[in-house]
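Hi everyone,

Forwarding the result from last night's run.
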Amino acid sequence: MSAVPEQIAGAFRSAHRALIMTHLRPDGDALGSSFGLRRYFRDNGATAEVLVPGPLPERYTTLCRDGLAAVTPEELGRFDLVVSLDCANPERLGCGPELTPELLRRHPRPVNIDHHRGNSLDITAAWIDGSAASTCTLVAEILLSAGGVISPECATLLLAGMMTDTGCFCFSNADGRALRTAAAMADHGAEVETITNALFFNKPLRQLQFEAELVQRHLTVACGGKFAYIFVPEELMRKYDFNPKEDEGLIDIARSVGGAVIAMLSHRRPDGFRVSLRSKDRRCPVGPIARKFGGGGHEMAAGCTLEVPDFSAVEALILPEIAAALASGVQ
Protein backbone atom coordinates (compact mmCIF):
# COMPACT_ATOMS: atom_id res chain seq x y z
CA MET A 1 0.00 0.00 0.00
CA SER A 2 1.22 3.52 -0.82
CA ALA A 3 1.55 6.08 1.97
CA VAL A 4 -1.96 7.48 2.47
CA PRO A 5 -2.10 11.22 3.22
CA GLU A 6 -3.15 11.45 6.87
CA GLN A 7 -4.94 14.74 6.15
CA ILE A 8 -7.42 12.86 3.94
CA ALA A 9 -7.73 9.79 6.15
CA GLY A 10 -8.41 12.10 9.09
CA ALA A 11 -11.02 14.02 7.11
CA PHE A 12 -12.82 10.77 6.38
CA ARG A 13 -12.73 9.70 10.02
CA SER A 14 -14.17 12.99 11.28
CA ALA A 15 -16.79 13.66 8.57
CA HIS A 16 -20.41 13.96 9.67
CA ARG A 17 -22.10 14.91 6.40
CA ALA A 18 -20.27 14.24 3.12
CA LEU A 19 -21.07 15.04 -0.49
CA ILE A 20 -19.31 12.99 -3.17
CA MET A 21 -19.06 13.91 -6.83
CA THR A 22 -17.22 12.59 -9.88
CA HIS A 23 -16.81 13.26 -13.58
CA LEU A 24 -19.45 13.58 -16.26
CA ARG A 25 -20.41 10.37 -18.08
CA PRO A 26 -19.17 8.32 -15.10
CA ASP A 27 -17.59 4.92 -15.68
CA GLY A 28 -17.10 1.98 -13.35
CA ASP A 29 -14.19 3.50 -11.47
CA ALA A 30 -16.02 6.80 -10.95
CA LEU A 31 -19.20 5.12 -9.76
CA GLY A 32 -17.54 2.36 -7.74
CA SER A 33 -15.39 4.85 -5.84
CA SER A 34 -18.28 7.28 -5.29
CA PHE A 35 -20.92 4.83 -4.14
CA GLY A 36 -18.35 2.73 -2.28
CA LEU A 37 -17.24 5.79 -0.32
CA ARG A 38 -20.86 6.72 0.36
CA ARG A 39 -21.43 3.25 1.80
CA TYR A 40 -18.33 3.60 4.00
CA PHE A 41 -19.50 6.91 5.45
CA ARG A 42 -22.99 5.59 6.12
CA ASP A 43 -21.67 2.39 7.69
CA ASN A 44 -19.59 4.49 10.07
CA GLY A 45 -22.33 6.79 11.28
CA ALA A 46 -22.06 9.71 8.88
CA THR A 47 -24.57 11.05 6.38
CA ALA A 48 -23.36 10.88 2.77
CA GLU A 49 -24.74 11.50 -0.71
CA VAL A 50 -23.44 11.05 -4.26
CA LEU A 51 -24.16 13.78 -6.80
CA VAL A 52 -24.77 12.22 -10.24
CA PRO A 53 -26.38 14.66 -12.70
CA GLY A 54 -28.23 12.71 -15.38
CA PRO A 55 -29.12 9.02 -15.57
CA LEU A 56 -26.61 6.34 -14.66
CA PRO A 57 -25.28 4.02 -17.39
CA GLU A 58 -27.66 1.06 -17.54
CA ARG A 59 -25.05 -1.56 -16.65
CA TYR A 60 -24.41 0.10 -13.26
CA THR A 61 -27.98 0.51 -12.08
CA THR A 62 -27.91 -2.82 -10.23
CA LEU A 63 -24.97 -1.81 -8.02
CA CYS A 64 -25.39 1.98 -7.78
CA ARG A 65 -28.70 3.49 -6.73
CA ASP A 66 -30.26 6.66 -5.34
CA GLY A 67 -27.78 9.34 -6.29
CA LEU A 68 -28.73 13.01 -6.11
CA ALA A 69 -29.52 14.67 -9.44
CA ALA A 70 -28.72 18.19 -8.19
CA VAL A 71 -27.44 20.14 -5.19
CA THR A 72 -27.96 23.87 -4.69
CA PRO A 73 -25.27 26.20 -3.32
CA GLU A 74 -27.29 26.49 -0.11
CA GLU A 75 -27.43 22.71 0.26
CA LEU A 76 -23.69 22.48 -0.43
CA GLY A 77 -23.05 24.57 2.69
CA ARG A 78 -24.71 21.91 4.85
CA PHE A 79 -22.03 19.34 4.04
CA ASP A 80 -18.90 19.43 6.18
CA LEU A 81 -16.87 17.48 3.59
CA VAL A 82 -17.00 17.52 -0.21
CA VAL A 83 -15.04 14.86 -2.12
CA SER A 84 -14.22 14.86 -5.83
CA LEU A 85 -13.29 11.43 -7.19
CA ASP A 86 -11.69 10.36 -10.48
CA CYS A 87 -12.10 13.77 -12.14
CA ALA A 88 -9.00 15.29 -13.75
CA ASN A 89 -10.19 18.77 -14.67
CA PRO A 90 -12.92 21.32 -13.83
CA GLU A 91 -14.62 21.01 -17.22
CA ARG A 92 -15.47 17.36 -16.59
CA LEU A 93 -16.72 17.70 -13.01
CA GLY A 94 -20.31 16.49 -12.72
CA CYS A 95 -21.47 19.15 -10.29
CA GLY A 96 -24.94 19.69 -11.76
CA PRO A 97 -26.66 22.81 -13.06
CA GLU A 98 -26.39 24.92 -9.90
CA LEU A 99 -22.87 24.24 -8.65
CA THR A 100 -19.50 25.14 -10.15
CA PRO A 101 -15.97 23.83 -9.61
CA GLU A 102 -15.15 27.20 -8.03
CA LEU A 103 -17.83 26.64 -5.37
CA LEU A 104 -16.23 23.27 -4.65
CA ARG A 105 -12.79 24.86 -4.26
CA ARG A 106 -14.20 27.53 -1.93
CA HIS A 107 -15.90 24.97 0.33
CA PRO A 108 -14.29 24.90 3.79
CA ARG A 109 -13.29 21.25 3.42
CA PRO A 110 -12.87 19.94 -0.13
CA VAL A 111 -10.88 16.78 -0.96
CA ASN A 112 -9.68 15.64 -4.38
CA ILE A 113 -8.71 12.00 -5.08
CA ASP A 114 -7.71 10.90 -8.57
CA HIS A 115 -5.37 8.61 -10.49
CA HIS A 116 -5.06 10.80 -13.60
CA ARG A 117 -1.76 12.62 -14.00
CA GLY A 118 -2.08 16.34 -14.59
CA ASN A 119 -5.15 16.80 -12.41
CA SER A 120 -6.07 20.50 -12.54
CA LEU A 121 -8.88 20.85 -9.99
CA ASP A 122 -6.53 22.90 -7.77
CA ILE A 123 -7.69 21.58 -4.40
CA THR A 124 -5.11 21.66 -1.61
CA ALA A 125 -6.27 18.51 0.19
CA ALA A 126 -5.57 16.12 -2.67
CA TRP A 127 -4.14 12.71 -3.40
CA ILE A 128 -3.27 12.51 -7.09
CA ASP A 129 -1.41 9.29 -7.82
CA GLY A 130 -1.01 8.45 -11.49
CA SER A 131 0.69 5.16 -10.63
CA ALA A 132 -2.53 3.75 -9.16
CA ALA A 133 -4.58 1.48 -11.40
CA SER A 134 -7.85 3.14 -10.39
CA THR A 135 -9.36 5.73 -8.11
CA CYS A 136 -11.08 2.83 -6.36
CA THR A 137 -7.61 1.57 -5.45
CA LEU A 138 -6.81 4.91 -3.81
CA VAL A 139 -10.13 5.10 -1.97
CA ALA A 140 -9.71 1.52 -0.68
CA GLU A 141 -6.22 2.33 0.56
CA ILE A 142 -7.53 5.40 2.38
CA LEU A 143 -10.32 3.42 4.04
CA LEU A 144 -7.91 0.68 5.11
CA SER A 145 -5.70 3.37 6.66
CA ALA A 146 -8.54 5.37 8.22
CA GLY A 147 -10.02 2.38 10.01
CA GLY A 148 -13.69 1.82 10.68
CA VAL A 149 -16.14 -0.56 9.06
CA ILE A 150 -15.57 -1.64 5.46
CA SER A 151 -18.74 -3.61 4.78
CA PRO A 152 -19.15 -6.24 2.05
CA GLU A 153 -21.28 -3.76 0.06
CA CYS A 154 -18.60 -1.09 0.26
CA ALA A 155 -15.89 -3.60 -0.70
CA THR A 156 -18.01 -4.88 -3.60
CA LEU A 157 -18.44 -1.39 -5.06
CA LEU A 158 -14.74 -0.60 -4.78
CA LEU A 159 -13.73 -3.93 -6.29
CA ALA A 160 -16.16 -3.33 -9.17
CA GLY A 161 -14.34 -0.12 -10.09
CA MET A 162 -10.98 -1.85 -9.85
CA MET A 163 -12.20 -4.59 -12.17
CA THR A 164 -13.57 -2.22 -14.81
CA ASP A 165 -10.44 -0.02 -14.90
CA THR A 166 -8.07 -2.99 -15.13
CA GLY A 167 -10.16 -5.06 -17.55
CA CYS A 168 -10.75 -7.64 -14.82
CA PHE A 169 -7.00 -7.45 -14.05
CA CYS A 170 -6.02 -8.16 -17.66
CA PHE A 171 -4.55 -4.75 -18.51
CA SER A 172 -0.98 -3.61 -17.86
CA ASN A 173 -2.08 -1.44 -14.92
CA ALA A 174 -3.00 -4.57 -12.93
CA ASP A 175 0.20 -4.47 -10.91
CA GLY A 176 0.94 -5.94 -7.50
CA ARG A 177 -0.51 -2.93 -5.74
CA ALA A 178 -3.80 -3.26 -7.63
CA LEU A 179 -4.01 -6.98 -6.92
CA ARG A 180 -3.16 -6.59 -3.23
CA THR A 181 -5.80 -3.89 -2.75
CA ALA A 182 -8.35 -6.01 -4.60
CA ALA A 183 -7.48 -8.96 -2.35
CA ALA A 184 -8.06 -6.75 0.69
CA MET A 185 -11.54 -5.93 -0.60
CA ALA A 186 -12.20 -9.63 -1.16
CA ASP A 187 -11.13 -10.22 2.45
CA HIS A 188 -13.75 -7.64 3.48
CA GLY A 189 -16.46 -9.63 1.73
CA ALA A 190 -16.56 -8.20 -1.80
CA GLU A 191 -18.90 -10.32 -3.91
CA VAL A 192 -17.10 -11.09 -7.18
CA GLU A 193 -20.03 -13.06 -8.58
CA THR A 194 -22.37 -10.11 -8.01
CA ILE A 195 -19.97 -7.82 -9.88
CA THR A 196 -19.41 -10.12 -12.84
CA ASN A 197 -23.10 -10.90 -13.28
CA ALA A 198 -24.08 -7.23 -13.07
CA LEU A 199 -21.32 -5.71 -15.20
CA PHE A 200 -19.96 -8.34 -17.56
CA PHE A 201 -22.62 -11.02 -18.11
CA ASN A 202 -25.65 -8.79 -18.42
CA LYS A 203 -25.90 -7.39 -21.97
CA PRO A 204 -29.33 -6.89 -23.53
CA LEU A 205 -29.88 -8.91 -26.70
CA ARG A 206 -30.14 -5.72 -28.77
CA GLN A 207 -26.64 -4.71 -27.65
CA LEU A 208 -25.20 -8.06 -28.70
CA GLN A 209 -26.87 -7.64 -32.10
CA PHE A 210 -25.50 -4.11 -32.31
CA GLU A 211 -21.98 -5.32 -31.54
CA ALA A 212 -22.28 -8.12 -34.10
CA GLU A 213 -23.11 -5.61 -36.84
CA LEU A 214 -20.25 -3.38 -35.72
CA VAL A 215 -17.83 -6.26 -36.25
CA GLN A 216 -19.32 -7.28 -39.57
CA ARG A 217 -19.58 -3.83 -41.16
CA HIS A 218 -17.66 -1.19 -39.24
CA LEU A 219 -14.44 -2.75 -37.96
CA THR A 220 -11.33 -1.71 -39.89
CA VAL A 221 -7.76 -2.97 -39.61
CA ALA A 222 -4.83 -0.80 -40.75
CA CYS A 223 -1.08 -0.36 -40.30
CA GLY A 224 -0.31 -3.94 -41.25
CA GLY A 225 -2.89 -5.29 -38.83
CA LYS A 226 -1.47 -3.42 -35.83
CA PHE A 227 -4.28 -0.83 -35.64
CA ALA A 228 -7.94 -1.87 -35.31
CA TYR A 229 -10.68 0.73 -35.16
CA ILE A 230 -14.44 1.10 -35.20
CA PHE A 231 -16.57 4.02 -36.28
CA VAL A 232 -20.10 3.83 -34.87
CA PRO A 233 -22.51 5.51 -37.32
CA GLU A 234 -25.50 7.38 -35.99
CA GLU A 235 -27.94 5.32 -38.06
CA LEU A 236 -26.67 2.11 -36.45
CA MET A 237 -27.20 3.57 -32.97
CA ARG A 238 -30.74 4.50 -33.97
CA LYS A 239 -31.39 1.05 -35.44
CA TYR A 240 -30.53 -0.68 -32.16
CA ASP A 241 -31.60 2.15 -29.84
CA PHE A 242 -28.02 2.32 -28.57
CA ASN A 243 -27.13 5.16 -26.22
CA PRO A 244 -23.56 6.38 -26.91
CA LYS A 245 -23.24 7.09 -23.19
CA GLU A 246 -23.30 3.30 -22.76
CA ASP A 247 -20.16 2.76 -24.86
CA GLU A 248 -17.85 1.78 -21.99
CA GLY A 249 -16.12 -1.45 -23.00
CA LEU A 250 -17.17 -1.20 -26.64
CA ILE A 251 -13.60 -0.42 -27.66
CA ASP A 252 -12.60 -3.86 -26.39
CA ILE A 253 -14.07 -5.30 -29.60
CA ALA A 254 -11.28 -3.61 -31.54
CA ARG A 255 -8.72 -4.26 -28.81
CA SER A 256 -9.45 -8.01 -28.98
CA VAL A 257 -8.40 -8.29 -32.64
CA GLY A 258 -5.37 -10.56 -32.85
CA GLY A 259 -2.21 -8.72 -33.84
CA ALA A 260 -3.67 -5.29 -33.10
CA VAL A 261 -1.48 -3.14 -30.84
CA ILE A 262 -3.61 0.02 -30.78
CA ALA A 263 -7.41 0.21 -30.85
CA MET A 264 -9.76 3.12 -31.48
CA LEU A 265 -13.49 3.72 -31.15
CA SER A 266 -15.14 6.82 -32.57
CA HIS A 267 -18.63 8.24 -32.90
CA ARG A 268 -20.14 11.63 -33.62
CA ARG A 269 -21.25 13.88 -30.80
CA PRO A 270 -22.73 17.39 -30.91
CA ASP A 271 -19.30 18.89 -30.28
CA GLY A 272 -17.42 16.75 -32.81
CA PHE A 273 -16.13 13.21 -33.11
CA ARG A 274 -15.29 11.46 -29.87
CA VAL A 275 -12.12 9.37 -30.23
CA SER A 276 -11.16 6.75 -27.64
CA LEU A 277 -7.74 5.12 -27.86
CA ARG A 278 -6.23 2.07 -26.19
CA SER A 279 -2.79 0.48 -26.43
CA LYS A 280 -1.79 -3.09 -25.68
CA ASP A 281 1.95 -2.35 -25.63
CA ARG A 282 3.73 0.11 -23.31
CA ARG A 283 6.14 0.93 -26.14
CA CYS A 284 3.24 2.50 -28.04
CA PRO A 285 1.43 4.85 -25.64
CA VAL A 286 -1.69 6.62 -26.89
CA GLY A 287 -1.74 9.36 -24.26
CA PRO A 288 0.56 11.62 -26.31
CA ILE A 289 -1.72 11.29 -29.34
CA ALA A 290 -4.80 12.28 -27.37
CA ARG A 291 -3.00 15.21 -25.76
CA LYS A 292 -1.81 16.45 -29.14
CA PHE A 293 -5.46 16.96 -30.07
CA GLY A 294 -6.48 18.58 -26.80
CA GLY A 295 -7.56 15.43 -25.00
CA GLY A 296 -6.16 13.49 -22.08
CA GLY A 297 -6.29 10.34 -20.01
CA HIS A 298 -3.61 7.77 -19.28
CA GLU A 299 -0.68 6.65 -21.38
CA MET A 300 -2.38 3.39 -22.35
CA ALA A 301 -5.99 4.61 -22.38
CA ALA A 302 -6.84 8.10 -23.56
CA GLY A 303 -9.28 10.10 -25.66
CA CYS A 304 -10.03 13.38 -27.37
CA THR A 305 -12.73 15.16 -29.36
CA LEU A 306 -12.03 16.27 -32.92
CA GLU A 307 -14.04 19.11 -34.42
CA VAL A 308 -14.00 17.91 -38.03
CA PRO A 309 -16.77 17.52 -40.64
CA ASP A 310 -16.77 13.74 -41.09
CA PHE A 311 -15.08 10.51 -40.07
CA SER A 312 -12.73 10.54 -43.05
CA ALA A 313 -11.22 13.69 -41.55
CA VAL A 314 -10.78 11.80 -38.26
CA GLU A 315 -8.91 9.07 -40.12
CA ALA A 316 -6.76 11.65 -41.90
CA LEU A 317 -5.66 13.10 -38.56
CA ILE A 318 -5.34 9.94 -36.48
CA LEU A 319 -3.87 7.36 -38.88
CA PRO A 320 -0.50 9.14 -39.35
CA GLU A 321 -0.16 9.52 -35.58
CA ILE A 322 -0.90 5.85 -35.01
CA ALA A 323 1.51 4.81 -37.74
CA ALA A 324 4.26 6.95 -36.20
CA ALA A 325 3.62 5.56 -32.71
CA LEU A 326 3.76 1.99 -34.03
CA ALA A 327 6.89 2.67 -36.06
CA SER A 328 8.74 4.07 -33.07
CA GLY A 329 7.50 1.51 -30.58
CA VAL A 330 7.08 -1.84 -32.30
CA GLN A 331 9.83 -3.06 -34.58
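The mean pLDDT is 95.

Cheers,
N.
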